[in-house]
Design goal:
The protein is mainly alpha-helical. The protein contains 7 helices and 2 strands, in the order αααααββαα. A two-stranded antiparallel ribbon has the order 1-2. The termini are far apart.
């Protein structure tokens, strides 16, 4: 004969409350994870969308030849830094200004407090010259002018502390690929992993 267990209304209410609390906690955790994942996706999409506006649509054929050409662009950024005029200067400078404006819009959108601390065009030019346009993380040769708006080797500014603005002291030059891969990982640890990866690839080539 099956034994029937009776619960008081107080016990039933308590069990129902505990079950509801557990379900709510799980729901909140799941919702939080979903929101964070969506936020990461939107940040990445927003970043790519901004970069799409950077490329120059119409340029003379004579200037097209320096597109995707690291050696030529390194010479030109050095001339720009030294104040030496050159034929391609208008398009070269505009490409830098366009991306600088994109970063400024990002900071305004995120409502950072100190807009006066924002990196200047002169700061960016100096950074590009100082690092010889090499990515801080993987040492790849970056580009200032490129035909593909989503070129993985294009130069970007990566914030060392992702919770602060794009200031001169808080940014380094890196390629788009590393910028997107790093996300919110520790900058120093990410650099170490990329350098290790680079060294392993170099060793395999020597074998």
């Amino acid at each position: 004969m099956n034994k029937v267990i009776h619960f008081s209304s107080q016990t039933l209410n308590s069990l129902h409350k505990n079950a509801s609390t557990n379900i709510s906690e799980c729901s909140v955790d799941d919702a939080t994870k979903k929101i964070n994942n969506e936020k990461m996706k939107n940040e990445k999409k927003s970043y790519i969308d901004l970069l799409d506006k950077v490329s120059i649509q119409e340029v003379p054929n004579a200037i097209i030849s320096i597109y995707d050409n690291y050696d030529s662009q390194l010479i030109l950024i050095q001339k720009l830094y030294k104040g030496i005029p050159f034929y391609e200067q208008k398009y070269f400078s505009q490409a830098l200004k366009n991306k600088l404006d994109c970063y400024k819009q990002q900071d305004i959108k995120k409502k950072y407090d100190d807009y006066n601390n924002f990196i200047t065009l002169e700061n960016i030019i100096e950074k590009l010259v100082t690092c010889s346009m090499l990515c801080f993380y993987c040492n790849v040769k970056t580009l200032i002018l490129f035909k593909n708006s989503r070129e993985s080797c294009q130069w970007t500014l990566d914030r060392i502390n992702n919770y602060d603005e794009h200031s001169n002291s808080n940014t380094i030059i890196c390629c788009l690929k590393c910028n997107l891969q790093r996300r919110r990982k520790n900058s120093a640890k990410f650099k170490f992993s990329k350098q290790l990866e680079h060294n392993l690839i170099t060793l395999k080539k020597l074998e």
